[in-house]
Amino acid sequence: DYVVLPPEINLANEEFNDFYATAGAEISGKQPGEMIVKKGKSIVYGVTIPSNFSRQQLAVAWVDFLLSPEGMAIMEANGQPPVIPAVTNDMSKLPDELKKYVTEAD
């Protein structure tokens, strides 16, 4: 069992980012005595395939499934709303098979 939080506070919905940002926490910075305020925002997960992974094709097949409509439906059904399309900061590093699901960040 677990507690189901409403979308206004569960950090799962980008539509509430302005509201999430009204909460913040002060944490230690890199320098002694430095403090940084971290504001709330929605949580977004990522996926990657390490370049030295020995079974690249298997990994690509898994990510292909994950990003497919069926994979996204599974994620959604388990409380992880997908970001569609997925976003990357370097399209040239993506295997060709995955580019159909991804857009490049601004």
TrEMBL record:
One Pfam family from the record: SBP_bac_11
Name recorded for this polypeptide: Extracellular solute-binding protein
